[in-house]
Amino acid sequence: QLQLVESGGGLVQPGGSLRLSCAASGFTLDSYAIGWFRQAPGKEREGVSCISRGGSSTAYADSVKGLFTISRDSAKTMVYLQMNSLKPEDTAVYYCAARSTSCSNSPQFFTSWGQGTQVTVSS
């Protein structure tokens, strides 16, 4: 059974950093693209970053390009999102999700989701 579990969220001051983790089980990372999404209160869920099935390519939303980095550890079946220079507008629940084909920034194309982890950026 495919399962995703996020961790690493919390409260951080503006300009700070957090690393989110997504633990995958029931499948191999070579078979699925993994995306990070976020949803702020009253807003739609949006794509943040994605790493391809083979791990050879990554994609980022314009708002986080150069600030966030997605990576994976295939041996541990973990996917990470390193978030630097955080801003209050980055406050949201962050989710990781799996898709058996290519990366996409549309949540509708991802079939398996974690429960989410809260990130709050505030002084």
| Arithmetic mean of pLDDT | 96
Q: Structural class from helices and strands?
A: mainly beta
Q: Low-confidence runs (pLDDT<50, min 5 residues)? A: none
The arrangement of helices and strands along the chain is EEEEEEEEEEE
Number of strands: 11
Distance between the termini: 40 Å
Which percent bin holds the helix content? under 10%
The total of helices stands at 0
Strand count, sense and barrel status of the largest sheet are:
7 strands, mixed
Query: Beta-strand percentage?
Result: over 45%
Computed CA radius of gyration, to the nearest angstrom: 13 Å
The gross shape turns out to be globular
Task: Reconstruct the topology from this structure.
Blueprint: E1 3-7, E2 10-12, E3 18-25, E4 33-39, E5 46-51, E6 58-60, E7 68-73, E8 78-83, E9 92-99, E10 112-113, E11 117-121
Parallel strand pairs: 2-11
Antiparallel strand pairs: 1-3, 3-8, 4-5, 4-9, 5-6, 7-8, 9-10, 9-11
Would you kindly provide a brief summary of this structure?
This protein has 123 residues and is mainly beta. It contains no helices and 11 strands. Helix content is 0%, strand content 48%.
